[in-house]
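If you are new to this repository, start here. Below is one unmodified record pulled from the training split, so you can see the exact layout before writing a loader.
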Amino acid sequence: MVVAAAFVGEFLDASRDLLERVWDKYQPINWDYLANGGKDEVDNLRTWYYTYYAFDCNAILTLVIASVVAVLFHVRSLANYLGNYWLVGVVVLLFLVVFFFNAVGLRSEIASLTKKES
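And here is the target side for that same chain:
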């Protein structure tokens, strides 16, 4: 079970990394800062911004993938037990919207904090 969880986590991180290459074209982040910045600044960035940003992105990917799999393969889900597909759909959409806008805000802060000095 632990191996499966680690594998899924790595898949989500790799997927996020691929999507960040696209996102970096529109809102660049100086990723070198995480390797070359001051220890205290990098620790603060990771603690207060990056960890939550990565969680938000991974949560979005998980919800999207799980929703697609559930629809394509008619997986028994919480909606089957509740008998209300609309309610579950609205809740999933609400989570997606909240996680997305939080990720956008956190990424904006990370971009600002890691901006290269000219």
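Two things worth knowing about this chain: The mean pLDDT is 87. Residues 39-73 form the longest helix (35 residues).
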